[in-house]
Design brief:
It is a single chain. This protein is an alpha/beta fold and 340 residues long. It contains 10 helices and 12 strands. The strands form 2 sheets. It has a 10-stranded mixed sheet with strand order 2-1-12-11-10-3-9-6-4-5, sandwiched between helices. Strands 7-8 form a two-stranded antiparallel sheet. α2 crosses α7, α3 runs parallel beside α4 and α4 packs parallel to α5.
Length: 340
Amino acid sequence: MADDDLLTVRSSPRTRGWSPFDGPGTGTDPLDFGLFEDGQPVTFTPASPIGGVSGQIIGGSGSGKSRVLNSMIGRAGECGDVLIGVVATSKLVPAVYPWIKPWLEGKADRPAIDFVAGQDPEQVMLMLAAIYQIVSAYNDGLSNESTTSVSPERPAIVLFIEEAGQIPRHGVTVTTHDGQKADFSALIDMITAVCRSANVGVWLVNQNALFDAYGARGPQIQRNTPYRICLKTMAPSDGANTLPGLGGAWGDTSKLRHNTMLVQPSIEEPRIMPAKAYNLGQPHGDPIEPIAIRNGAWRPELPEHIAEQLGDIWTGRWDANRLPELAKAAERDGLVWPVG
């Protein structure tokens, strides 16, 4: 798997590839975002009868995290019953801007990503508190079912937190809808402890292993984010602290090359295989723009009664004053940020 172009996007027997197709998919299907070394698809399922999956994506600078992130956003965005969010106190623009640029250019009625927060730490925390409120509302609506049933009217949520290890350093706290005062680590613990049954998945993206970043909350957060993806790390210990089943020929993740990643879908089943994410949005890869335009055409909406409870943090989530870095990126391209 040394050739960096080996896994440019192609159709496999169960996928459509990235070519346009009629109608949206569903998050209840396994969504492939890469290929294992043996040619089998690497998948994640945003919504299932046993709940949504949360995970960690770890890799040093230049390892290919953006490639993984773009491929997962592209796949989840194909679904008409999945909302996608990205929050970050750094690197928000490169993670989000390619996906919303067609909307800013008037080529799409809606952005391909449904909600964004950052880089102001307070804005990130307010959005995370809103996600916790959504998870609580979804779970409160359960009766005989143990897991929220997903539909375009009650979509699953996939949330990516870029450079998640940096956010605890800001020390910002927020009071949640149920009166709990929480810092970032506590809030992530609160969300990931109950989000699976709500079919909400949280993906923590970072350059280093995350265990130490969360202090006393670390063990519980580690258990509740069991899907692990590890690319080339700056130190072997980052791989060892991320992948419980690491060993043998793949024991030193600092030696991974050419965007190769080690994938462990469950920490309960320590099976690790090398893989690569599809080459989307990277040099010589497939362009994001047509995918963003297509995916934006069938985005679902958060249930109206829940959106009303969240107030301005949700209805005003695309306010340029909340997202000055993105607004400046648009201005540099001669684009006008939408009003309202």
